[in-house]
Amino acid sequence: METHPYAPKASFDGGDLDCGNGLLLLIRKHIDPLEAGELLEIRSREISVPEDLPAWCRLTGNELVSHLSQGREHSFLVAKGKFVPERAKPAAMRTAMPLQQSVRAVTIPSELPAPAPAPRIAPLSVMGVGSWPRPAWLLDALHRRLEGRLDAAQFEAAAEDAVRLCVDAQLRAGVDVLTDGEMRRDNYASFVGGLLDNCQLIPITDLLPYVEHPEDFERELRALDVPAGKVRHPAVFGPLGRSQPLALHEARFLRTLCERPIKVALPGPYLLTRTMWMECISDRAYASREELARDVVRVLREELADLLADGVALVQFDEPVLSEVVFGHARERRTFMCGALGEKLETPRELAFAEELLAELTRGFPRERLALHVCRGNWSPDESVALHGDYAPLLPLLSRAPVGTLFLELCTPRAGDGGLLNELPRDKRIGIGAVNQKRAHVETVEEIRAHVEPLIERLGPERVLLNPDCGFATFADNPLASSAVAQAKLSALVRAARELRARFGVG
Predict the structure, then answer these.
(1) Could you tell me the CA-to-CA distances from 501 to 102, 123, 460, 495 in Å, in that order?
(2) What CATH architecture does domain 10-87 belong to?
(3) Any idea which architecture 136-504 has in CATH?
(4) Who is most buried in 81, 205, 285, 384, counting CB within 10 A?
(5) In terms of DSSP bridges, do strands 263-267 and 314-318 run parallel, antiparallel, or are they unpaired?
(6) Average pLDDT, whole number, for the chain?
(7) Which of 82-86, 309-313, 381-385 has the highest mean pLDDT?
(8) Beta pairing class for 232-241 and 73-79
(9) Burial state string for 3-35 with b = 16 or more CB within 10 A and e = fewer than 16
(10) Stretch(es) of the chain classified as CATH 3.20.20.210
(11) What is the pLDDT of residue 331?
């Protein structure tokens, strides 16, 4: 075979893998660490790759510079982004890297630590749901870290600075319970894919070969309010393991900055299973999504135990995809909603599956320190693209959920008027969504009181917490508010809570 006109920075042999059966995972593994404009050589003997790889390049914005073939042997030269010829050097070809997607052996702890005491969270306490707008310099560091172009220590230093700013804003607002703003995360759920063993984060655009209807998928991606190439998705290629924490390091650093109770949000087991189960990827490691779900629950239990043992006051599991199950169109078996692309089955089966996973995850842990958050989509400020519907279809699951607190979206009219909350068990606290993070308008104290007072009267003040409907930046590259607006909304909540405590005699 003749040689390419330019030398690649890296090279590997994809053998007989096609784009829908692991080749794109290897491409992503090798192209991410490259600098913009640098070249990757991909060797292949698979008959479909000459057609599929150019399509992937067009979709992802990576330039196909050269394609050589001899019989079944193909060699592709792909630039990361747009090719800059003056940066490349003509040279002899590098020796191809061996095909390798190494699978790490999983270590499962023999026992989990017991919970340690934690500060009490008082009635009518104010807190955020989780995420906070990231500064531009942190987003740059985050993407360089995801691509392997920034080492862990450098990224951690940048993230800690961003957390300090986030905590300072919350303290100025006067909140009672703090989060770290999820500063280290690319989004609220997929970040675990970069931390778990045998899981890899890939841009969501790389999933095109895996979906049944690529044209519909492309249309969904074009509708996103953030470039699809910046949204990453976890791809499982071996048994899941947890050799490093998912959020424990976040909680420990947060505790060094404040003495108030802290809350940590984690993706729920149903959300993670729906997100990670992709045919032709995860079925390389698991025979079924139920088998994958068992390991999802196991690693989340390990993380939950460590968080509670470290004194975290409240661990919140995010399950927004539950609303997609009950409010999504019945004929849409797959959706981008909140990043969960996995195929869903009939609604009753999905709800039962979600309930089963949550019960197994929380078994043996103190309910008063566990929470569940449900919303209707937080990827766009456009209310019209999010799901609509009151909580009626979810009431059985919410009632039986083995958690002490439910954080519910209630400020947006898409969630109904909140009257159904009367049907929830009296032993559950309700975090009432009292400001809308999708709106730039900062709610007044009077508006907040008018919204929450009737709900407090129905539920009783001892059962109520106050919070925004959802996070301020669920997806790192797509904040729904500025830091100033986020702080102002929390400050209004705090002032309203102060008046409400006096009104209802809560100390």
Answers:
(1) 56, 9, 12, 10
(2) 2-Layer Sandwich (3.30)
(3) Alpha-Beta Barrel (3.20)
(4) 205
(5) parallel
(6) 89
(7) 309-313
(8) unpaired
(9) ebebbbbbbbbbeebbbbbbbbbbbbbbbbebe
(10) 136-504
(11) 45
